[in-house]
Amino acid sequence: MLSSKPRAILIDVIPPRMPDKEAKRRIYELENLTQTYGGIVVVKIIQKRAIPDYKTFIGSGKLEDVVVIAKEEKVELIVVNNILKPHQIFNIERRVEKERIAVWDRIDMILKIFQKHATTIEAKLQIRLAGIRHMGPRIFRMGLELGQQQGGIGVRGGGETNIEIMKRHLAEQERSIKNQLAKISNTRGQHRARRDRLGLKTVSIVGYTNAGKSSLLNALTRKGAYVADELFATLDTRVAKLWLPRSPMPPLTRGSDSVVQDVVRDARDVRQVRSLLLSDTIGFIQDLPPQLIDAFKSTLEETIEAELILHVIDVSDPFVHEKIEEVEKILDQLGVSKTPKIYVFNKTDLVKRIPKASLLKKYKKMTPVFVSALKGEGLEELKNQLSLRILPQV
Q: Facing residues of 11 across strands?
């Protein structure tokens, strides 16, 4: 049983030729994940290997080094920043079981955070489904080990019977969860059909986790979505209505003539407006496992069906370009790479000098907009772009 703030060793196995910047980014992200879970990082280890070790992924020599450090630092948790095979996790666990140390891979850590943050029935079901798909093979491996120890290889002993029981139990659980999620998905589909009949357009907010998606939704719609400075703070889909002008108006600027300001305000008051729906969902992350994307498919349907995507980007992030690429990869997996997009560079209040010229040039086709959801800056320009891109003009 882990304490509320377990002391953790982080290990990342990378190719020998990986650039130092990318290596630092990977271990930094795992550190953030561990802190979001509630752990205390005491040691970070980056190991360069051309081919991961078949038995333990990190190799027997490195594993012995880790065990020594774990004893000295009173570690309760080892996290490997890779996706390990069931027998690799099992072999590491067997080596550290006397020290009562838990062993997780990257998916385990993400699932633990998801469990911590899930609030709706749908999110909890999706996490259970992802957990079954990830843990199932590992449980089978444990049953196989028991069977070989008790009855010998090829002998139908108690361990082998346990495998069949576990397989049947997990298959029944997965079937039940998928049926429940299908019903939720069907209800959401009915809601979308009703919106279509009413002529409501849908814009999906996507982005790397902690880029400020929920903050933007709140700033634009006053939805009141939960916001926190941590990874995967929210997992559920939220949909809110946003009122927009039929034709965009210029934002008021400091120093404008008072008469001009009055004319603009009057125009804002009398012009016709239209509404659209904004949907915000789970944040993305580097190497988001396919089974997690598949488990959250019903939630991500709002993104798949959207007419326009707002890709929210943390402009203060030192890995801004790499994270843009990661999000685009996932959008491609979802089959929405060709859906029209607006790049929303958020958190401008955290940067003294924003390289606007280079960002505008590099991402010109994505109509870049610079905002601070926290300060409310740049939102009028974003609304204008939404009006131009998605609403019929009059």
A: 45, 80
